[in-house]
Amino acid sequence: MDPSTYKADFGKLPDGTPVDLYTLTNRNGLVARISNYGTIITELHTPDRSGQKGDVVLGFDNLEQYLKGHPYFGCTVGRVANRIARGGFTLEGRTYTLAINNGPNHLHGGLKGFDKVVWHATPQAGASVRFEYSSPDGEEGYPGKLDVTVTMTLTDANELRIDYSAVTDKPTPINLTNHSYFNLRGAGEVLNHELMVAADRFTPTDATLIPTGELKPVRNTPWDFLEPHPIGSRISRLGTDEPGYDSNYVINGGGKSLVLAARVHEPDSGRVLEVLTTQPGVQLYTANYLDGSLTGKGGVVYRRHMAFCLETQHFPDSVNHPSFPSTILRPGETYQQTTVHKFTTR
Length: 346
Hints:
By secondary structure, the chain is mainly β. Helices cover 1% and strands 41% of the residues. It has a nine-stranded antiparallel sheet with strand order 11-12-13-14-29-23-22-17-20, with no helix packed on it. Strands 1-2-3-4-5 form a five-stranded antiparallel sheet, with no helix packed on it. The two termini are 24 Å apart.
């Protein structure tokens, strides 16, 4: 079959704004469905080792459920993904105050981040859609007008490729990522998924998940995934208040060209996910706060550790850590980064 993109209605916001759902299909029959509300990846169907296709991301059946609130299923998060300590930062002598929406900190762009806006969508050749959003100066407390483009492409190499770009008219922090929750078996816990993270170091945090500034070796710690092993095999040894992983890794060779950040193998289905990125970090999150209160696609009740996230990114709270790779975008510059999710079996 030829690669294709198909647009369908996905409902309306309370103010009447229409929302669309785009279905991308590659030559091998892989299918991704993406809404222009939050650029949410609502479905991603990939084959297991026997060729049987299954949906490997968590989400909902309809727009109404997304509008009721959710833990960032499948969306683009920004203007700054992850946490900013105490909801504030200083840039060029001016202090900016942001929403406090995660304990004492700012998380994923604030009360109405990029995950809760309708993006302008333009289908591209083949199985691809370009999403555009213009964030006005002062939105959620951030300086500068920021024009963002996110292009999602389902390639014939069985990759979901996400290309990001942005320009601004004032210096501003930016850190975009996709927040898909993956389960390569399609059901049950993910603690038996075998994970490799290509990172010798991670950024330890305080009790509120703000980095201390240290880059700590993973060797001889529960954060060591340099050799693949089940996600859950050391999870009880973390010794933190978190009931699972919620940690940023410093990708070996990351921040320049496209490199392998992580690989996940699910033994029962044989599905393999490789995450490649140009970003310097990746956040491993094991769906620690899915508590059974959300019912997803097909009536499945979502519970703790039923998914994992691999959020490619700059490090959390980078705007307050001069030693971390900078997240500041300035006028005349173009923010560009790419993340690829490649699916195979073995």
